[in-house]
């Protein structure tokens, strides 16, 4: 497990700093394995640059993720190929991206539940998916299926907005018996997407997700949900509010999904509203940056050294140096909020923002898993005296999530091809000290 984010050396995990001679006198704790689990619809992204007319021709609402039938998929693929509009093919899926990015950042294990074609030819989509997934993502538990994995036509409009058309193949065929109870219950978190719930009942993946949630809740493993697209939430906000209230510890959304869920277009108000149903919220807001929101114990709150920010909740970031805690673990819970503007104002040129939100969530998951790791290695640490959901403060998590989102934007792919630099070699190293 690597340390989440850049820090001054005093903040590094103390667990490696053992004197080689003194170490002989102490009993070394057994190595701790830390991992997170995710469930996804196995998808390859086929990215293409398109105009408005193409979206209209295929009745694809801009910004949405629409499931299309095989004939339409065939027609769309042919048109994209003939007009030479395809710019890249990547492994995708919102949770696939998230666990891959987690494994790259943490340099540690994640487990992905989903399907994989039984027969794989070199060059096929299934082959590409496997090739483009970090070797630290454990794919041993994928359920073998007879058909192809899914394809996600990722259609980028001139201004960078992405619209998804999903040709689902066998991506929804995951069944509950392929969810490993010990893996889910031993994990630091279970991460899911709202997309799973739109699968047809007879296809299995929604039931598999519910089974995994039941295992996680039984063992008190945090359930992390990312909302996917506002269109899905708009269809039935009440359903999602109840779903979050019943099952979710940490919610990740963008400002549009936040509005669909809560009715507030202001990301801060949406985050506050969502705290009625869950313990922590990550709300990304494109060029406005991102917010974290959650609970801290009144007696442990820590005041920020940063400028107090104006907003719908005045000076909302006052206690952003506090560490997130589940509401139920606080005697006197207070709500805490933090915000950060895009790292270095964002990359100079953004081709599209696909996957930036997934990157931000991977950073949060890394911080959460690092807390588990640290707790097992240094149980006596003052950090763990009164519990806590994450290793770092709301403010540090904002910085880290933001930094990772920048990297996804700069790399032009929803999946990181490398971790963050060990040292920021630009003057922005100061960013981590601010
Ligand atoms: N135009 C931009 N300029 C600078 N930074 C940006 C821009 N768009 C996104 N970002 C960064 O990326 C983060 C996530 O972006 P965004 O809110 O677009 O995620 P998203 O809509 O969830 O994306 P996706 O669903 O494609 O993963 C933002 O919080 C911000 O840090
Ligand atoms: O229905 C879906 N299920 C799972 N993932 C999806 C779906 N639609 C789009 N994406 C995925 O979202 C990622 C960006 O966040 C893309 O990589 C795309 O593959």
Automatic annotation (TrEMBL):
<keyword id="KW-0067">ATP-binding</keyword>
<feature type="binding site">
    <location>
        <begin position="93"/>
        <end position="97"/>
    </location>
    <ligand>
        <name>GMP</name>
    </ligand>
</feature>
<feature type="binding site">
    <location>
        <position position="357"/>
    </location>
    <ligand>
        <name>ATP</name>
    </ligand>
</feature>
<dbReference type="GO" id="GO:0032263">
    <property type="term" value="P:GMP salvage"/>
</dbReference>
<dbReference type="Pfam" id="PF00294">
    <property type="entry name" value="PfkB"/>
</dbReference>
<feature type="binding site">
    <location>
        <position position="198"/>
    </location>
    <ligand>
        <name>GMP</name>
    </ligand>
</feature>
<comment type="pathway">
    <text>Purine metabolism; GMP biosynthesis via salvage pathway.</text>
</comment>
<keyword id="KW-0418">Kinase</keyword>
<feature type="domain" description="Carbohydrate kinase PfkB">
    <location>
        <begin position="134"/>
        <end position="294"/>
    </location>
</feature>
<comment type="pathway">
    <text>Purine metabolism; IMP biosynthesis via salvage pathway; IMP from inosine: step 1/1.</text>
</comment>
<dbReference type="InterPro" id="IPR052700">
    <property type="entry name" value="Carb_kinase_PfkB-like"/>
</dbReference>
<keyword id="KW-0660">Purine salvage</keyword>
<dbReference type="InterPro" id="IPR029056">
    <property type="entry name" value="Ribokinase-like"/>
</dbReference>
<protein>
    <recommendedName>
        <fullName>Guanosine-inosine kinase</fullName>
        <ecNumber>2.7.1.73</ecNumber>
    </recommendedName>
</protein>
<feature type="binding site">
    <location>
        <begin position="40"/>
        <end position="45"/>
    </location>
    <ligand>
        <name>GMP</name>
    </ligand>
</feature>
<comment type="similarity">
    <text>Belongs to the carbohydrate kinase PfkB family.</text>
</comment>
<dbReference type="InterPro" id="IPR011611">
    <property type="entry name" value="PfkB_dom"/>
</dbReference>
<keyword id="KW-0547">Nucleotide-binding</keyword>
<dbReference type="GO" id="GO:0006166">
    <property type="term" value="P:purine ribonucleoside salvage"/>
</dbReference>
<feature type="binding site">
    <location>
        <begin position="284"/>
        <end position="289"/>
    </location>
    <ligand>
        <name>ATP</name>
    </ligand>
</feature>
<comment type="function">
    <text>Catalyzes the phosphorylation of guanosine and inosine to GMP and IMP, respectively.</text>
</comment>
<dbReference type="GO" id="GO:0032264">
    <property type="term" value="P:IMP salvage"/>
</dbReference>
<keyword id="KW-0808">Transferase</keyword>
<keyword id="KW-0460">Magnesium</keyword>
<feature type="binding site">
    <location>
        <position position="402"/>
    </location>
    <ligand>
        <name>ATP</name>
    </ligand>
</feature>
<dbReference type="GO" id="GO:0005524">
    <property type="term" value="F:ATP binding"/>
</dbReference>
<dbReference type="GO" id="GO:0106366">
    <property type="term" value="F:guanosine kinase activity"/>
</dbReference>
<dbReference type="GO" id="GO:0008906">
    <property type="term" value="F:inosine kinase activity"/>
</dbReference>
<dbReference type="InterPro" id="IPR046405">
    <property type="entry name" value="IngK"/>
</dbReference>
